Automatic annotation (TrEMBL):
Family membership: Belongs to the SprT family.
Domain SprT-like intervals: 4-151
A family per Pfam: SprT-like
InterPro entries per the UniProt record, alphabetical: SprT-like_domain (IPR006640), SprT_Zn_ribbon (IPR035240), Uncharacterised_SprT-like (IPR023524)
Keyword vocabulary terms for this entry: Cytoplasm, Metal-binding, Zinc
Taxonomic source organism: Paenibacillus xylanivorans
Protein name: Protein SprT-like
Note describing how the cofactor binds: Binds 1 zinc ion.
Length: 153
């Protein structure tokens, strides 16, 4: 798909789902690695990661487009356009956009996160590696159902 087709696609999604035109530039950016798309505050440009289309297909990319259009339309109108803003959340839900600027799966344009934590079973000592910090109280040992401790590696 070429940039021109992406531009028309985003303009159409904007009219169909937001009822207002998208009047700025949209393009594919091959250098985006960890996000599916982004909205540029200064230029009002929307950039889409072309790998997303290859990996997830049109339906998912349309959700990313809706997500970026939520940033765009709210920002242009001087409303709360950031992820934490209630207006952003409400609009995103209304149009059915993806919840996050979606990340690509590991291995495709993205470095996998290293393991930085481990859950250790207090009873049998089994260790479970974790990439992110988790609350050990929410989990039990898979082997003996014992209580777990969180340790940094
Ligand atoms: Zn976003
Ligand atoms: Zn155990």
């Amino acid at each position: 798909m070429e940039n021109e087709e992406l531009q028309q696609w985003i303009e159409q999604v904007s009219l169909d789902h937001f009822g207002v035109p998208f009047t700025h530039e949209a393009l594919f950016n091959r250098r985006l690695t960890t996000t599916g798309g982004r909205y540029m505050l200064k230029s009002h440009r929307i950039e889409i990661n072309p790998h997303q289309l290859e990996v997830y297909g049109r339906e998912e990319v349309e959700k990313i487009i809706k997500h970026e259009l939520c940033h765009y339309h709210l920002h242009i109108r001087g409303r709360g356009y950031q992820h934490r803003d209630p207006e952003f959340k409400a609009l995103l839900q209304k149009v059915g956009g993806s919840r996050f600027c979606q990340s690509l799966p590991d291995g495709k344009g993205r470095k996998p996160l290293p393991y930085r934590y481990k859950l250790v079973c207090k009873s049998c000592g089994t260790e479970y590696l974790r990439k992110r910090k988790v609350d050990p109280k929410r989990y039990r040992c898979g082997r003996c159902a014992g209580k777990l401790l969180l340790r940094e590696i």
